[in-house]
Write a structure and sequence with these properties.
Helix content: 25-40%
Largest sheet: 9 strands, mixed
Radius of gyration: 24 Å
Number of helices: 14
Shape: globular
Oligomer: single chain
Distance between the termini: 48 Å
Structural class: alpha/beta
Bound molecules: 6-O-phosphono-beta-D-glucopyranose
């Protein structure tokens, strides 16, 4: 891998502590960092290099999935870390930064390959990109990359505006947009599951699939993020990005061994085929809801409007369920049901593919009823792929029993999403990053929902904390003769 200077904005922030340093450390243990690696952490606080390294060491102890048996290993890793104070809005600070980077590149004999990782609020993205451009930080001979994380805008218009600004300083090929769901190992396996298994590939269409269900349920509420979440809600926080990415990754039809261009092009085709919603029709296929007080895993949980920092009159959505259609040759007629919510009964991210009933089924007698075949992909909290088939129970002649076949038997500890993504960004592989085209199409698709919520065209429903959402979410499937699988 090519040598690189990793310039981290927001080096004293929460994301850096919880995710980025532990991910870098795990990559270091696995020898997946470039041999010549140089990190410059930036923040508003004055810190010495030594204190910065101590803080990074602590975050590894607190949050890394693996610990070093030998403390010398952490010290060796921390050798690469330097710190510099930077006020995001001050142009001189960027010029100072340029001098520091050039000095480090000189010292370590590194080519000027620079990766700018913006682990800061999205309101700073434009200013930082502009200052990188103006200061000359991005005009060296080597390559440059910009890594940013969602939210990419607040709606279609602001997303376009942000993209215009960023593209004044970086080309599309240089921008790596993180949607951390795309870094989850099981999401990354979706592509090959279909591509490398002709049996699955042959079934991956509307002739065999009755519906697709994608759920991302969380037990947590708004936590300490009331100020952010109350302006955002489930549509912007989860649906427009993570959930639509899961839909793209499920529906995409890929030839064997597709490169990143092909994967992203085919994902874009899925988004283009997504049947658009009109504002006045949103209520027929989208359920908007908010949690009320309830019990989660035996503990009482407050209702959303009683959470600290949330106005009692807030109409924000903490849950959304929607029925979508991908109107293309493969998926026409197959409903995709998608739901996500806070304070639900369990933390579970899963995709369920429900297959159609057998083609030549005689009217079954009661004891011969079978369950549909299901392909179940669990992404979180644990990872598995199972295929549910029907088999006759040999002890009880007439009866059919669903049996589960485990398609993911070698359970090894897998890397975290950030390890995969940072490694890919360091290598310059954009496959599992969101291309601007996908982001724009996702905002364009979600915009009528945002408008309909804003104008109150969709009634706000309520669900008790610790449940699977409001009754209307079940009715959305029931009207088509389906139900959410695995709600217990
Ligand atoms: C983030 C959202 O993008 O994803 C959070 O902002 C949410 O609100 C989180 O909790 C969920 O991620 P995961 O990986 O825990 O499913």
């Amino acid at each position: 891998m090519e040598p690189i200077t990793f310039v981290l904005f927001g080096a004293t922030g929460d994301l850096a502590k919880r995710k980025i340093y532990p991910a870098l450390f795990n990559l270091f243990i696995d020898k997946k960092l470039p041999q010549a690696f140089n990190l410059i952490g930036l923040g508003r606080k004055e810190l010495s290099d030594a204190t910065f390294r101590d803080n990074v060491g602590k975050s590894i102890r607190d949050f890394s999935r693996r610990q070093a048996k030998d403390p010398a290993l952490v010290d060796e890793f921390l050798q690469a870390f330097r710190y510099s104070v930077l006020d995001i809005g001050r142009k001189e600070d960027y010029r100072k930064l340029l001098l520091l980077i050039e000095q480090r590149e000189e010292e370590l004999k590194l080519p000027p390959n620079r990766m700018f990782y913006l682990s800061v609020g999205p309101e700073f993205f434009e200013t930082i990109a502009e200052n990188i451009q103006d200061s000359g930080l991005g005009s060296a001979q080597g390559w440059k990359r910009l890594v940013i994380e969602k939210p990419f805008g607040h709606d279609l218009q602001s997303a376009r505006q942000l993209n215009r600004k960023l593209s004044e300083a970086f080309t599309e090929d240089e921008i790596f947009r993180i949607d951390h769901y795309l870094g989850k190992p099981m999401v990354q396996r979706l592509e090959s599951l279909q591509q490398t298994n002709p049996v699955i590939q042959a079934l991956w269409n509307n002739r065999h699939i009755a519906n697709v269900q994608i759920t991302a349920g969380e037990t947590v509420g708004v936590e300490e993020r009331a100020g952010y979440y109350d302006h955002v809600g489930a549509v912007r926080d989860m649906f427009q990005n993570h959930m639509l990415q899961l839909l793209m990754m499920t529906a995409v039809q890929l030839p064997h061994k597709s490169g990143s261009d092909k994967v992203r092009f085919k994902k874009k085709m899925v988004m283009e085929a997504l049947e658009p919603l009109q504002k006045q029709d949103v209520a027929a296929s989208v359920i908007r809801a908010q949690y009320t007080a309830g019990i989660i895993q035996g503990k009482p949980a407050a209702g959303y409007t009683s959470e600290p920092g949330i106005a009692p009159s807030s109409m924000n959505d903490t849950f959304i369920a929607a029925k979508l259609h991908v109107d293309d040759y493969f998926w026409r007629g197959v409903p995709f049901y998608i739901r996500t919510g806070k304070r639900m009964k369990e933390k579970a991210t899963r995709i369920v593919i429900e297959f159609k009933e057998p083609a030549l089924q005689a009217q079954p007698s009661t004891d011969e009823r079978t369950e549909p075949n299901l392909l179940v992909i669990e992404m979180s909290p644990s990872e598995s792929i199972t295929l549910q088939l029907n088999a006759k129970d040999s002890r009880n002649k007439g009866e059919f029993k669903p049996v589960q076949i485990d398609l993911h038997p070698n359970k090894v500890e897998l890397p975290e999403a950030y390890e995969n993504l940072i490694h890919d960004a360091l290598r310059g592989d954009p496959t599992f990053f969101a291309h601007w085209d996908e982001v724009e199409l996702a905002w364009a698709w979600a915009q009528p929902i945002l408008d309909a919520f804003e104008e109150n065209l969709v009634p706000l429903r309520y669900y008790e904390a610790g449940t699977y959402g409001p009754a209307e979410s079940d009715a959305l499937l029931a009207q088509d003769g389906f139900r959410w699988w695995f709600d217990s």
